[in-house]
Amino acid sequence: MIIVQVKEGENIERALKKFKRKFEKTGIVRELRSRKTFEKPSVKRREQKNKAIYVQHLQLEEE
Q1: Please, what is the Cα angle at 23 between 15 and 30, to 5 degrees?
Q2: Measured distance CA(27)–CA(3) in Å, rounded
Q3: pLDDT tens across 13-40, in order?
Q4: Each residue of 44-54: pLDDT tens digit?
Q5: What is the C-alpha to C-alpha distance for residues 51 and 63, in angstroms, rounded to an integer?
Q6: What share of the chain has pLDDT > 90, as a percent?
Q7: Angle at CA 32, nearest 5°, toward 26 and 37?
Q8: In this structure, are residues 2 and 22 in contact, taking their beta carbons and an 8 Å threshold?
Q9: In this structure, what are the phi and psi dihedrals at residue 28, rounded to the nearest 5 degrees?
Q10: CA distance 61 to 45
């Protein structure tokens, strides 16, 4: 359960912003979207490999 402490006199928009930030960090929405459809393990591995190659390429360009 997400709890947001609201200080006295704090704006409700600011409290909602804190709630949204905490909710996003939990990763619930991301997990729900990934569970919506089945993804083969080989496809997952291929995507992870391609992402690692891309990140490594970016790091090499940076140097």
Answers
A1: 150
A2: 16
A3: 999 999 999 999 999 999 999 899 999 9
A4: 999 999 999 99
A5: 19
A6: 78
A7: 150
A8: yes
A9: -65, -45
A10: 24
pTM: 0.54
Amino acid at 30: R
CA–CA gap between residue 44 and residue 55 (Å, rounded): 17
**Would you tell me how many other CB atoms lie within 10 Å of the CB of residue 15?**
14
Contacts of 12 (CB under 8 A, 6+ apart): 6
Residue 42: both structure tokens together: 């080989």
Residue given tokens 């409290």 in the structure block: 15
Categorize the per-residue pLDDT at 1 as very low, low, confident or very high, splitting at 50, 70 and 90: confident
